[in-house]
Amino acid sequence: MVFYTKKAKAEMRRRRKKIAKAHDCDGADNDGNKVSGEKRSADQMNRDADQISTLSIKKAKTDKERETTIIIPANLTSQEAKKFRKDARRKARAQGQSEDTLKFIIEGQEAIEKKEGNSKETASVKEDKKNAKKKEFPRINDILSSHASQKKLQEKLDKQNAINSAIPLAEKQKYVAIDCEMVGIGTDGVKSALARASVTNWDGEVLLDTFVRVPERVTDFRTHVSGVRSKDIHAKNENAMDHEECRIKVGELLMGKILVGHALKNDLSALMISHPRPDIRDTARYKPFMRATGRSGGKLRPRKLRDLVYENLGMRIQVEGEAHCSIDDARASMELFKYVRNRWEKELEKGNKGMKRGKK
Known about the structure:
Blueprint (H helix, E strand, L loop, with lengths): L5 H17 L19 H24 L2 E5 L5 H17 L7 E5 L4 E2 L3 H16 L8 H26 L3 H4 L2 E11 L5 E11 L4 E6 L6 E3 L2 H4 L16 H12 L3 E4 L2 H8 L8 E3 L8 E3 L5 E3 L3 H9 L12 H34 L1
Parallel strand pairs: 1-2, 4-8, 8-9
Antiparallel strand pairs: 2-3, 4-5, 4-7, 5-6, 10-11
């Protein structure tokens, strides 16, 4: 069964009276029942609703046939044209004519929408079409330029690899790369604590990769960046190390080595160890890799490892939406260092010679 609210029933009674009056009826419906004072079943109400909708469609068709076209002079301003349309609607209402039957046309132009709602809808459709992105294809010049830059980069890499391959094994063994992942402790997880440490050699082989148990309460695991989960650094995780044990192992690996990494200050601070400054190769502090800022461009700021590796090596690390991997970051730092090793070491030699002369 279908149930109607009191308001809906009252509306139906009003429309039935209107239909009866239009057809010169005495108030009786199709079954011979009187409209006023009698309760009606749901089926009767449905039939009445169908009849009303049919008559509404017929009325709409007749209204469309009686549509009045009004031409707006082309020399009017927008305000004057608006007032012209307003006056025409007022006049139509005074004559008992519906506003919906009016159709405005600017002299020599397309028709203007009658209803405010229709005009808004049309404007929104046009706006959507305007904002809709067309399917774009790369231009041939862009493709050729990208191909040429990739080819040029590959030639540089091949040349550098040939130079690096000629380096003696004893020289290569001097270099190690490190990267650490941290979690947040304390209020709001602002303070960092060591959660993972990775050390690789010249060829990218892993010398150490371990999770580190955090003795304090972790307030922010930073999993979306660090990739560290609660179970990785849990006290019951036998594969994880204590901080002191990790600190000793890393110290042994770094002893007498040249340390490579990106923003090594953070890693060494988390490990609570130090390293001789002449034996540090921090790609975040290497001037050619830094970005000039300030009005005069004299202030240098470090750039992200992800951007430097992609720009200089064509490698992608730290992909958006994926957690960082300390092994990948350590290897990337080493590859970035190898790319500029000759120039970097020569600059350091010149600097050391200048300091010796100054002392003399």
